[in-house]
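USER: For my understanding, would you kindly supply a protein sequence with its structure tokens?

ASSISTANT:
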Amino acid sequence: MYNINYIYIGAFLFIPALIQATNYKYTTFFNTITFFNIIYIIFNIYLSFILGLDRFQINSKLGALINYDNMCIVFAILSFIYSFHLKSKYSNVILIISFLSILLNVNHATRSTWMLLPFLFMTIFWVYRYKAKIFIVISLFFSILSLIFLFTTKNNFIPRIYDTIYDINAMIHQSDKATSIGSRIDMWRIALGDFYQSPIYGKGTFNIAENLCYLSQQGFLAGNCLTHMHNIFFQELSTHGILGFISICIIIFLPLIYFIRKYFNTDNSTIKFLSLSASFCVLSFLASSTTDFYFISNIAAAFYGLIIFTLYGLIISQEKNHI
């Protein structure tokens, strides 16, 4: 079922070599992403404002809103960081575009996209604190945030906060009703039990999916037919045991460690920018993976491979040019 999706990550191993052969510029990559964010803004304004769709209606239109939001927030983050690095009169325009893209994404109320944003803002404001536009950025951010939330989030963001509070209260009072957060915790307990039963190879993807579907149909878990553990690490522990857990840690943490080390071991501002952007991309994937199985679709897996190997290739290219 989901196992083959990991193959799509490896399909992009050739990208660093392609970047070297074509002398592909990092500015082209980030300008393309900024253009995508413009399309994203127009499309989501159409969905939310013109059609007046709420979260659940948008989900029915797109089919997988969580995956959609988790992937698109990466583009918004990349444009946001790019606006600070870019020494151009267009940098403020890109900054506004990235803000709007982030806010529209948050408006969809996919909770896994919220977790990284405060850390992102604080880090970027600190790294680029000597730029004069920081004061304008902060004022602009809170102004837009207030306006967007005031007029658009009453049907999405606020109810999701109430849902979270309700789930926590239900857990505290040990309610028998299956909730979103409670079901995730229950699934993670099940995953640990599966791991103890088969610690090396796991119990297999299909067997786990079949059991979760049965439990959700019986009302023990929230949902009609759940098929994964809603956490990529618990998913691998239960389906593929310690071997799967180690593999997924390599896929996520090896690039993260590489990019962070590159950031601190260079004085080149462009390499620092690319390393910082790549680090936040991996952190965004990681945040999304804590409450959902990020590689549930081949598109999500391919997207991860595309972004990570492209940024890796751009860093290598910049290092050779710098030498």
Notes: The chain has a mean pLDDT of 83.
